[in-house]
Design goal:
This protein has 613 residues and is an alpha+beta fold. The chain has three domains: 198 residues, Phosphoenolpyruvate Carboxykinase, domain 1 (3-Layer(aba) Sandwich), CATH 3.40.449.10; 281 residues, Phosphoenolpyruvate Carboxykinase, domain 3 (Alpha-Beta Complex), CATH 3.90.228.20; 73 residues, Phosphoenolpyruvate Carboxykinase, domain 2. It contains 17 helices and 34 strands. Strands 1, 4, 5, 6, 7, 8, 9, 10 and 11 form a nine-stranded mixed sheet that branches. The protein has a six-stranded mixed sheet with strand order 15-13-14-26-30-27, sandwiched between helices. Strands 2-3-19-24-18 form a five-stranded mixed sheet, covered by helices on one side. Helix 16 runs antiparallel to helix 17. It is globular.
């Protein structure tokens, strides 16, 4: 028998008819519209505990909180099985896995046929952004995972109002998810149903997502990376805005002036920590607007306006503790879903970096663990899912949905060498070049070799829903809608530079405020910057490092621009650009040529340009 996927519903079409067609294909035992009301949530949590899919934590130690343990083979985004099914292969570009949409629909139809037998099909109407915001977008997620439905209730704004808006004709994005593990009378369920055969397929022209086989958040919470970045980036291209893998914060100076900063970092490179920064500089304060995704659009006033479309945090647990991120540590004291962390004998959670290791634990796979065991107690990509409203630093705009005007955009990543602590782009085109050539050491948040340096342009390599070079061109075109004097200034930062002994040269965490304060002062026109071949650098004095007890090596290397290292970097960039078959925008190539020219002007072999005092 030949199965077919239901046709993608047109914007403003009848969602109930489409839901019925998906149900006819997937054949669940029952269909439940899930609005995440307190009663619905409590019932679904209790059911998940009864079925063994969640463990309820101690109500006194961690009230309202639960632990999920995934299958050991389903712990991260599966980039190798993530597909862009655009009508033209060239529209996907060389950095995406392209599949013909017709053949992919047939392939998925075979997988989804009967995929939900024995399970409940949850239909989750959600809004990305506060529903009345002009930048908000609506969607429906169909899923046979209670974990996904519960998590969507945290990460998005799920409500009956959203369904009403859709029924009244609002545009919406259809998304379908199945763990790919149908149940029969002879099949025993597991605590984390999944399938070794995985697909995360995006159809840009029809604005739909189909995900099969994985229960992990990045593959199963389809409003997040799938909709809010891959599909939304296509919407942004077509409608004149940007969907970005960025945090969003407001810094207020001692004089009371607010500054809004968006920052792009690859996953697990400190976005959540920076979004909840507690400055060590007296008089500076930070408010959190978002830690992972930003939608931004030029306004009629020539400025760039931004929102965080999400409603929650899906943060990396290891490394999060009172010393690194006290705000997040307090935020997850209650009403949190933890995934793949360790469990204490007292029925609380633990992970590396939270506190000294207890004498005995149950690790993320349910096995006994004690200090000295040659495996981590928590998976390196273990997570917490919690409402952004629980953040003590959350800004009022989270509730009102108002956009904020951007003053600066930061690019960053993990680089042990080459990239200085901070520098500013010479202009918008130079900033786009900096974003296009971002490189970072890979972390455990995705498949691949941890520690390997890879290019991750704009931190969007796994998340751009169309051709990467067209995306760079779109960034260049966006500047035409901005007033040059009011457009965000662009900077690059690197908290992770290491010395010869392998130690970090910069203390990071709250002291990152010293860099952000310099950026704000640059925007305000209060401090100078020194021109170098790669951009405009601060001095250590302007970073107010007195009292940090930086080593002599740190003082020499934090702002060093070594021409030999950068000659190798430019060669690597040229090789990276060669992989785009001549489609790199000329304005981006011109920036590489200008960089090479500036480097060639440094006459002393091995000379180092720096700005210290």
């Amino acid at each position: 028998m030949r199965f077919t996927l239901p046709p993608a519903p047109g914007f403003g079409s009848d969602c109930a008819l489409w839901v019925a067609e998906v149900a006819a294909l997937t054949q669940p035992d029952r269909v439940v519209w899930y609005y995440d009301t307190p009663d619905e949530r409590a019932a679904l949590l209790a059911q998940s505990v009864t079925e063994g899919k969640l463990t309820k934590l101690d109500s006194d130690l961690r009230p309202g909180s639960y632990l999920a343990r995934s299958d050991a083979a389903d712990v991260a985004r599966v980039e190798s099985r993530t597909f862009i099914c655009s009508e033209s292969e060239s529209d996907a570009g060389p950095t995406n896995n392209w599949r013909d949409p017709i053949s992919m629909r047939a392939e998925l139809a075979a997988r989804f046929a009967g995929a939900m037998r024995g399970r409940t099909m949850f239909v989750v109407p959600f809004s990305m952004g506060v529903a009345h915001s002009p930048l908000a977008r609506f969607g429906l997620q169909i899923t046979d995972s209670a974990y996904a439905a519960l998590s969507m209730g945290v990460m998005t704004r799920v409500s009956r109002e959203v369904r009403t808006r859709i029924d009244d004709g609002a545009n919406w994005v259809p998304t379908v998810h199945s763990v790919g593990a149908p149940l029969t009378a002879d099949t025993a369920d597991t605590n984390w149903p999944s399938n070794t055969d995985k697909y995360i397929a995006h159809f840009p022209e029809t604005r739909e997502v189909w995900s099969y086989g994985s229960g992990y958040g990045g593959n199963a919470l389809l409003a997040k990376k799938c909709f809010a970045l891959r599909i939304a980036s296509v919407l942004g291209r077509d409608e004149g805005w940007l969907a970005e893998h960025m945090l969003l914060v407001r810094l207020t100076s001692p004089e009371g002036r607010p500054f809004h900063i968006a920052a792009a970092f690859p996953s697990a490179c400190g976005k959540t920590n920076l979004s909840m920064l507690q400055p060590t500089l007296p008089g500076w304060t930070v408010e959190t607007l978002g830690d992972d995704i930003v939608w931004m659009k030029p306004g009629g006033d020539g400025r760039m306006w931004a929102i965080n479309p999400e409603a929650g945090f899906f943060g990396v647990a290891p490394g999060t503790g009172p010393g690194t991120n006290p705000v997040a540590t307090s935020m997850i004291e209650r009403d949190t879903i933890f995934t793949n962390v360790a469990l204490t004998p007292e029925s609380d959670v633990w992970w590396e970096g939270l506190s000294p290791a207890p004498a005995a634990l149950t690790d993320w796979q349910g096995q006994p663990w004690q200090p000295g065991t040659d495996r981590p107690a928590a998976h390196p990509n273990s997570r917490f899912t919690v409402s952004a409203g629980a953040c003590p630093l959350i800004a009022e705009e989270y509730f009102s949905g108002r956009a904020v005007p951007l003053d600066a955009i930061l690019f960053g990543g993990r680089r042990a060498s080459t990239t200085p602590l901070a520098f500013e782009a010479y202009n918008w085109d130079h900033g786009v070049f900096m974003g296009a050539t971002m490189a970072s050491e890979q972390t455990a948040a995705a498949e691949g070799t941890v520690g390997r340096v890879r290019r991750d342009p704009f931190a969007m390599l796994p998340f751009c829903g169309y051709n990467m070079t067209d995306y760079w061109e779109h960034w260049l075109k966006i500047s035409e809608q901005l007033d040059p004097d009011r457009a965000p200034r662009i900077f690059q930062v690197n908290w992770f530079r290491r010395g010869e002994n392998g130690d970090f040269l910069w203390p990071g965490f709250g002291d990152n405020a010293r860099v952000l304060a310099w950026i704000c002062r640059r925007v305000a026109g209060y401090v100078p910057a020194s021109p170098t071949p790669i951009g405009m650098l601060p001095t250590l004095d302007d970073l107010h490092v007195h009292g940090l007890n930086l080593t002599d090596e740190a003082q020499d290397q934090l702002l060093a621009v070594n021409d030999a290292e950068w000659a190798a970097e430019t060669a690597s960039i040229r090789e990276w650009f060669d992989g785009f078959d001549g489609h790199v925008p000329p304005r981006v190539l011109e920036q590489l040529e200008q960089l090479e020219h500036r480097l060639a002007a440094v006459h002393e072999p091995g000379a180092t340009a720096r700005a210290r005092h």
